[in-house]
Amino acid sequence: MNIKMLSTGLLMLSTAAVAGSGHEWGYSGSTGPENWAQLSGDYAACGGVNQSPVNLTGFLEAELAPINFQYQKGAYEILNNGHTVQVNYKPGSFMEIEGQRFELKQFHFHAPSENHINGESYPLEAHLVHADKAGHLAVVAVMFTEGSDNEGIVKAWQQLPETKGQKNTLTHPISVNELLPKERAYYRFNGSLTTPPCSEGVRWYVIKQPMQASMPQIKAFADALGHPNNRPVQPLNARQVLQ
Ligand SMILES: [Zn+2]
């Protein structure tokens, strides 16, 4: 996957459904995940061998450097694109890993989780989508178990867009730090966008320590979409998951 295509992937990830561009796709029926690769030539990567999400298992021990998270209170708008609820982020927040800087563009949610860990699904998963200057993508994933309210989600859901196409400007800035646990050890693998165009070459960092969200918070998200938004797990094939 070249750089230009990855940039296009990010653009589509953030704007496609709202702008109405690209072929319609969904999570069930004739436009469901098993048919994505056939819906459009632009979605051919959905049939690739390095796809996300995956069941993270069979870990390979590695010396993984800590991620340096430098996040500001940069969330400024929240939108419902029919596929997820997404919070867009102002420039200036980033993570650094292996000497590379990836700027946080947006975060969004999936219920139930897309990735599984040792075969276990979670009721909610957050994806923090980053890009470097060349357009290479890096996604930090955070799992949520059912428990107490997450304070970041409390703030975001105060302005939850409850219908497809709705976008609200956040009146109180939110920091994505509120979605992250203190302990930030992670699993690492290479994968793809989990939605069409399913572009590969995406670096995935799945935080080991889950967070908590309350059942009403998870239900509010599911109700805003009206359907589950998890692509089924894809085969690891030749890939290994590092820890
Ligand atoms: Zn996602």
Automatic annotation (TrEMBL):
The keyword Metal-binding applies. Residues 23-243 form the Alpha-carbonic anhydrase domain. Residues 1-19 form the signal peptide. SUPFAM superfamilies: Carbonic anhydrase. Its EC number is 4.2.1.1. It holds the Pfam family Carb_anhydrase. It catalyses: hydrogencarbonate + H(+) = CO2 + H2O. It comes from the Bacteria. Its cofactor is Zn(2+). Reversible hydration of carbon dioxide. This is Carbonic anhydrase. The lineage of its organism: Bacteria, Pseudomonadati, Pseudomonadota, Gammaproteobacteria, Alteromonadales.
